[in-house]
Amino acid sequence: MPSVKAFVGLGANLGEPEGQVRRALAAIEAIRATRLLAASSLYRSAPVGVGEQPDFINAVAAIETRLSARALLDELLATEARFGRRRESPGAPRTLDLDLLLYGEAQIDAPGLTVPHPRMHERAFVLKPLLEIAPKATIPGRGAAQALLERQPDPAVLRID
Known about the structure:
- It is built from 4 helices and 10 strands; from the N terminus they run βαβββαβββαββαβ.
- By secondary structure, the protein is of the alpha+beta class.
- The model has no long low-confidence stretch (mean pLDDT 92).
- It has helices at residues 17-29, 69-82, 124-133, 145-150; strands at residues 4-12, 34-39, 43-45, 56-65, 97-103, 108-110, 113-115, 138-139, 143-144, 157-159.
- The strands form 3 sheets. Strands 1, 2, 3, 4, 5 and 10 form a 6-stranded antiparallel beta sheet that branches. Strands 6-7 form a two-stranded antiparallel ribbon. A two-stranded antiparallel sheet has the order 8-9.
């Protein structure tokens, strides 16, 4: 299979989230047939649309992979599990969240796999780190990431490193 450039969103708000996200970047780099191209800075943001819980630490990684989108997602989910992720309820606090944001220019709508990530265009905590490492990024079916970010309310998404 030819290589595809993909982007992965990382987030954590349990345990030591900064360390979790940094270790997760190393784990992504270790995925078979995959190479880490770039990683954004870390960003702190308040949880969106959920009850009272700790702030999140977020980042975005650019990778090159020869895995299919489904195989890559399976590797990301296995990585989450190794980091202690439990899926108790949507929006629950988490030790690690890895989202397949973009997979080349693909638009995929399959059971358990939607690319681009269905809400990434509404989330400043995804768009800011994405634009840091891919300033000209576009989201298939949505448009330029910079224009999408400019349409968002200005939640506190603070770069921390």
